[in-house]
Amino acid sequence: MTDRPVKVPNHLSNVFYRPALAQVLRVDQLTKVEKLLAVRLGTGEALGHEPGQFVQLSVFGYGEAPISICSSPTRRDAFELCVREVGTVSAAIHDLCPGDWIGLRGPYGRGFPVVEMEGKDLLIVAGGIGVAPLRSLINYVRDNRQLYGRVIIVYGAKNPAAVLFKDDIELWSQDGSLELFVTVDTPDETWTGKSGVVTSIIRNLDLNSPSSLHAIVVGPPVMYKFVAMELFHHGMTADRIVFSLERRFKCGIGKCGHCQVNDLYVCRDGPVFRYSELLGRSEAIEVWAPEEDK
Amino acid sequence: MVNDAKFRVHHLTRVEGHGDIVAEIRNGRLEDVRFSVVEAPRFFERFLQGQNYDEVVHVAPRICGICSVSHKSAALKATEAAFSVEVSEQTRLLRLLAFNGEVIGSHILHAYFLALPDFFDAPSVLPLVQTHKDAILRGMRLKRLGYDICEVVAGRHTHPVGMIVGGFTFFHSEANLIALRERIVRGLEDMKETVKLYKSIAIPQFERETEYVSLTHPSRYPFYEGEVHSSESGTISVADYSKAIREYVVPHSTAKHAKWNRPEYMVGALARVNNNFNLLSPAAQQAARDLGLEAPCHNPFKITPAQVVESLHCLEDSVDLIDKILSTGLNAVDEAAEVRRRPGVGVGAVEAPRGILFHEYGYDADGTCTSANHVIPTAQNLANLEADMREYVPQIVHGTEDYLIHQLEMLVRSYDPCISCSTHLVRVTTR
Amino acid sequence: MAPLMHVLSFDGLYDMLRKAMEDRPVISPTERKDQPGFYHFAKLERAEDFAADYVTTTLPPKNSFFQPSETLFTFTLEQPPQLQLVSDTEHFVLAGVHPCDLSGLEALDLAYSQPPAEVRWPSDRKLATVVGIDCKPDDYCFCSSLGTSFNREGCDLFLTKVGRGYLAEVYTSAGEDLLTKVRKWEPAEEDLSDAEQWRREKIERMSAHLDAEVGEIADILEAGGLSHIWKAVAERCYSCGSCNTTCPACFCFNTYDEFDLSLKHGVRRRTWDSCQLLEFALVAGRHNFRQERWQRVRHRWHRKFLYLYRRLGRAYCTGCGRCSRACTADINMVDVTNRIVAHAGKGAEHD
Amino acid sequence: MTISPKPKVAFFDFACCEGCQLTVLQLDETLLELLDHVDVVTWREVMTGESESYDIAFCEGSITRERDVERIKHIRETAGILVTLGSCAGIGCHNAVRNIWPSEELLEDVYGSRTVVSDIIPARPITAVVPVDYQVLGCPISLFEFVTVFKHILTGKKYYLPNQPVCVECKLNDYLCVYEKGMICLGPVTRCGCNAICTSLGDACHGCRGLIDNANLNAMVKVLEDMPKLHPIMDRVARNHRLTREQIRRKLAVYNSWPELKLEEGAAHGE
Ligand SMILES: Cc1cc2nc3c(=O)[nH]c(=O)nc-3n(C[C@H](O)[C@H](O)[C@H](O)COP(=O)(O)OP(=O)(O)OC[C@H]3O[C@@H](n4cnc5c(N)ncnc54)[C@H](O)[C@@H]3O)c2cc1C
Ligand code: SF4
Ligand code: SF4
Ligand code: SF4
Question: CA D20, D25, D27 angle in degrees (round to 5)?
């Protein structure tokens, strides 16, 4: 992917850390812990983001959190954010109602290499909430379908109730140009789709020309290593595997230091990285996780 | 008229700590009345042993959040006595000042926020915020002033941090003392209003003569220093306190009771005023007379007015103390005397807001505590309080039961009992 | 090109400060009121309180531009909310900055100006006129190893003590302005040689040295194989962060929101943060990317001598020694770095 | 996003010095502002009258008797939000120091053969008996933290106790480290949140807010034992206070006796 300087639209380049205002248009409860928000900037302008970028979202009084933009830049009237409730800011986001005002900084970060991947086959792997930024990519690809080759989507969720974007999935599954696999770790009686972890699906994929394939993987920290191993089995190389990392961000512009992975600032140099950039960086993929996650 | 009644006021409110009033009346006659302390014991004397002296004086004030400057002072004096540490005159004056701050804070808290609702028939101070806003704000100002005196001198009010064996951990500033003096002078106006307020309040008439125990001093109204005095038998030295004061266990209370010459004695503001009337400032003496407090006064309901009188005295005395400190120039650099640890035992006696308080510690050559004993004011008052209740009930038994309970509650509250302290009246001997 | 120079008398320095204090605050090293013999940067009350001979301060002068805890903006909870930027607008003089600390300011200038640049820091920097002053080292200083001993970058005026007062090197017109109406002389030969002598002594007296150039240290760190050293350091490290919070070249921060008592308005604040603290790299799900103490210790050294060195072309250490002085566990920047260098010298294996 | 209508607030106390409640009263006008948002229905130290229903319970003190266990469980069931006030309630404070002796022995010491209290159990914090929603620590509480927590409750924000040592607050406030004055400070292993009040007054930190997670106690022992080898400043510390390992343990135990303090804990590099 090209290392061009991060492009920050003027109206949001406020690096006094004062956010711009934006208004919530719609709130949908997607699952028990995830909500989808449609948001429009107070100025009415389009956000001007790339798939894979994020915004620093403020709920005043509660703080700021990085949230991926999960709508495609090709849809310009408003943009969407999918938020899982895990802590202070995300809980406050969940309390928002249509009409409420929030603060936004961004879009920030390096998104998916959509230009570089043009003409290539794509394998898109999503785990859990990782599907949010990938939805932006998938819908972008659908809107520019002629620019890309084969598109395979593998999405894993914990259980049927945790599957996000069911409406989109419905559309994707009807789109004959996409190969879609949705799998859950623990199925229930209502579930008719696949079950098992994403790696088992990937293992069984028929990737006839892995040399023209790009893999884009977003999921929980513990997932990356295992997915990469499967991809290597298929003969893929690290420079064509792309990950999006999650760290703590306080500034979003490579100043506060919280997101550092060795020498990289996830917020500024990423969050999207080629796996080849991360190899040899000991803090990228190996993480300490609480007992219950291991 | 209450003929037959048996009641227990469970966890008396607006006092510090947990105590129950238990009374039994049969055929209009009092069978039994007790003030039962149900606070859980915390075993300070036990776990202080084995601690280094600096931790001992750090933890000792945690016996009580309301009079922690008193506990700290007593612990410091005991420890300094054990190690023969002489503190500088400036340190002494500053400690006297901090002590005044605590007395003011504690007395005002009681006079305005705990006792006052009784006189206005309110369940707490909260409704009074609406109905008597001026008075409550005045109370807040005065309490704050008392606490701020502690804060300027000792760092903070509750569990003061700046006071250590030998002196202080930080340097005082002249500017702060001057600013404080100005505020105290202004506070005197509020204090005069307070005297007026209490003059307008009808205090129940009830008298019972008893033995009054407090510190006494040749020239100063004694809070921080002095010898031990009984209205019955005269003055003894602090070191001899344990020969005179006897503690004993009663079954209904986790606090021990105490006696000296009589089966019971009173400590606290009224005992101090009775024993040291002439040492009060002239204005405070006048206020005492205005409030119907000529020594000796035998009405335990007058404890609260006596606290008002003492608060006035402390404010005036604080101005004098600051003037004295400033007149010789504040030595802002070296305020801690050197401590040489050595084996020994020391007793520290002070007049906490609720009465005379003793701390006694033994240390070994390393400065490790080997024995500890605390004699707490409220515990010393318990026997006297019960004697008062026994005598008072027959005088009020003609009223309704509610009235009777309310009067007993007022009586107990008037002692301003500090129950969380009182459960530490325990003695531990080291094995 | 040699800067324009003047000589001030000892009183002339006070005159200069007094004049400056007439129209703006002067921040300078002063003796601590709470503990004589120790110094900190504080607002100067009287020109005579200027501590010309201080060795070091607990906190570096960066706190004049980026306070340890500061308000970024205020907000109301109206719909839409009203946001009000809070930033300094008052011009001030920062006097008495040692060469290493000037280098610290420069380090932060560089870091904060990387795109997307932050506006806060440079806008505060523009408010200050900076007066440097030369110093003598103590046992912790090792600026000569970082090449900051004679740094003049980022100051408007620089003073060196000479026999009859101070030699003043003028770097900007703002620096020159400080000296208008102050009695000054042309520097004589003797003044210049006094200053030269001072600088010579400064280097001679420096007892602590890194045993390798920064570039070599970066290579050694990059090569790795040092985890036993990190673990040994971590054995006694408290992860208290004092090494970061006292460092002139550290610039990490945290932000959080706070309501006022009405619960209708509030502020967003930011405070200094430290990568040595346990939760610095904690994210949702309690994943911690540097959970282990030794990883955090390693991160500190890497950041100072490798990551930012490669990225920005300079070490993020100025040799001021503050971290070593502040560390109650006596973890010393020079000792540990030299252990690493010594280990590499022995032909370390890679891990 | 505030809880509405006005939540009902109750204050309760267990074994302690009641200094925390008293500290709350020191808020004066600020307290009145806070109380605007709530109704106080039970506060024994301040008011007569008691309510059986409340939304937010503030509890101070340690659990030291069987009957306290029942009482706190009842409060937990009644209150929607349970907040502990102070270190007695949060970490056991010095109340727990006595746990190393059997209760019978302690009672015998105090009351002789007469049983005045019979249901004494090892002293423990409220947090060890029931789950709590918010904590304010300190001996006494930090008022700043109390106000912060109060605001968090009213705005439905979770409050994480700061998990950093006191040193951070010393530095952010530009206080001189008391080791420089020859004193031993427990700040490097103690949870901040007090805004370094003791060190601001030139006293050492005695550890009243308890240990941070992952406190490096080994380092503390090592550092205090080898003081003379350390910085020049440590000479003075060493002269004033050479401490043995046991003395270091006792010093740390003053506030950290629940559960029993073990110096081996707090693994060296954080595994
Ligand atoms: C580039 C990027 C994109 C992202 N995109 C999305 C997205 O699209 N949707 C989404 O939902 N999330 C996304 N995230 C994650 C999201 O930013 C975090 O979940 C969010 O910042 C959490 O903030 P919070 O205030 O809600 O949680 P916090 O209150 O910060 O809590 C987060 C977690 O940490 C724990 N925690 C926090 N502080 C402490 C403490 N002091 N002590 C102990 N535990 C603590 C909490 O228990 C909780 O588990 C993204 C992150 C990144 C970096
Ligand atoms: S100052 Fe010392 S103990 Fe504290 S984090 Fe830094 S190296 Fe560790
Ligand atoms: S790392 Fe240490 S020596 Fe280097 S600049 Fe920072 S505080 Fe100074
Ligand atoms: S005084 Fe104590 S808490 Fe403060 S920096 Fe020093 S060791 Fe840490």
Answer: 105
Which of A62, A103, A257 minimises the CB distance to C275? A257
Rounded Cα gap, residues B422 and B254, in angstroms: 8
Cα dist from D54 to A218, C223, D8, D11, D30, whole Å: 46, 62, 5, 10, 22
Give the contacts of C53 (CB within 8 A, at least 6 positions apart): none
Which of B102, B93, B47 has its CA nearest to residue B71?
Answer: B102
Chain segment D39-56, per-residue pLDDT in tens: 888 887 666 666 778 999
Q: Please, which residues have CB within 8 angstroms of residue C139's CB and are 6 or more apart in sequence? A: C207, C208, D232
How is residue C94 written in tokens? 């920062």
Name the residue among B328, B340, B319 with its Cα closest to residue B89. Answer: B328
In this complex, the chains that touch D, judged by 3 or more CB pairs closer than 8 A, are A, B, C
The reply to whether residue D158 touches residue A87, judged by beta carbons under 8 angstroms, is yes
Q: Which of A35, A246, A247, A272 to mutate to test the pocket of ligand 1 (most atoms within 8 A of CB)?
A: A246
Q: State which of D135, D145, D158, D160 you would mutate to test the pocket of ligand 1, scoring each by most atoms of that ligand within 8 A of its C-beta.
A: D160
Q: What is the pTM of this model?
A: 0.91
Q: Quick: pLDDT tens for C31-86.
A: 998 778 899 999 999 999 999 999 999 999 999 999 999 999 999 999 899 998 88
Distance from CA of C45 to the nearest CA of B (A): 14
**Ligand 1 centre distance from Cα of residue A271 (Å):** 15
Candidates B262, B373, B425, B382; CA nearest to B21 is: B382
Give the number of the ligand closest to the Cα of residue C104: 3
Atom of ligand 1 nearest to the CA of A267: 1
pLDDT band at A11 (very low <50, low <70, confident <90, very high): very low
Return d(Cα A171, Cα A164) in angstroms, integer: 13
**What is the C-alpha to C-alpha distance for residues C331 and C351, in angstroms, rounded to an integer?**
24
What is the distance between the alpha carbons of residues C191 and D88, in angstroms, rounded to a whole number?
Answer: 65
Q: Quick one: average pLDDT of A158-187?
A: 92
Residue pLDDT, tens place only, D67-99: 899 999 999 999 999 999 999 999 999 899 989
Q: Please, are residues C268 and C75 in contact by the beta-carbon 8 Å criterion? A: yes
Residues of chain B with pLDDT below 50 are: 423-431
Q: Report which residue type is found at A26.
A: R
Using the atom order of ligand 2, give the atom closest to the CA of residue C323: 1
Touch between chain A and chain C: 3 or more Cβ pairs under 8 Å? yes
| Whether A88 and D157 lie within 8 Å, measured CB to CB | yes
Ligand 4 centroid – CA D197 distance (Å) = 11
Mean pLDDT of A63-79: 91
pLDDT at A131: 95
Residue C126: count other Cβ atoms within 10 Å of its Cβ. Answer: 9
Q: What pLDDT was estimated at residue D101?
A: 87
Cα–Cα distances (Å) from C2 to B167, C149, C169, in that order, read 56, 17, 9
* d(C-alpha B224, C-alpha B103), whole Å: 11
